[in-house]
Amino acid sequence: MLTLTQTRERLQALGMHPSKKLGQNFLVDPNIVRKSLDLAKVTAGDTVVEVGPGLGTLTGGLLERGAEVYAVELDHRLAASLRETRGDEPRFHLAEADAMDKPLGDFPGDRPFKIVANLPYAISTPWMEKILAGPLPEKMVLMLQREAAERFTAEPGGKNIGAVSLFLAAAYVRRPGHAVARSCFYPAPDIDSVLLHLERREHPRSFAPQTRALMRKFFTQRRKQIGSLARQEKSPALDHWLAVLESAGLPPTLRPEALPLDAWLQLDQALQSA
Ligand SMILES: C[S@@+](CC[C@H](N)C(=O)[O-])C[C@H]1O[C@@H](n2cnc3c(N)ncnc32)[C@H](O)[C@@H]1O
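Above: the input record for the complex with S-adenosylmethionine. Below: its predicted structure, written as tokens.
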């Protein structure tokens, strides 16, 4: 675990100024590192994917607990530094890549795994959408910008609900997040952070790509009623869906944000059986 002073020194030695664009706010609080590992119940033999290992603070904790770590880091200076400090560790696998191209780094997805990451905030939602396309991790413990955590945990009827909230709700139990003080990072970010804990459901549900695309489209027109959104698609499957909703007491005048998860799962079913 790197202290604040060690983090500063290491960055200086690398000739680096933390990049805002890459969300480079490094963890300098050992309690938060420990809490992340505890929430994910990381034990020897676990396989863990880490996005944005940075200087390797969280990575070190994961390796100390005996995990096999697949990390993906975009910044070549940090990747070089990790190869120098962790390169000899046989349980450490580093992909120098964009996590949007390699959401799981070099992990082949051939066994159960977890994700523990202090995410670069700019990619958290699109990266999560990629993760939810599978294979699904058993657990995810993620440091997120507060707005992203609210979006991920939003319930129907709330203002933050979006397609990603529903994709997540179908597959994961979303535990309440823990607020993390700005002083736990170097440099201190000018936004609030939340540590979120997600546990895969016993029977996770996922939406077909076609349904996901349609849901995203509907949520970009969230002020429109579900009836007009569905009818504009000119599809018998969607007409059928509206009828199913109506018989369940959900009128076509509702807006996408008001529909419960079940209604979206029914949309998936209607599109699959069309
Ligand atoms: C919030 S910092 C976390 C650093 C370290 N894990 C820690 O907790 O101290 C985010 C890290 O993600 C890296 N990063 C930013 N965008 C990335 C991307 N698209 N793909 C992979 N890594 C990225 C940054 O270079 C940085 O190391």
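Notes for the reader.
The two ends are 54 Å apart (CA to CA).
The longest strand covers residues 172-180.
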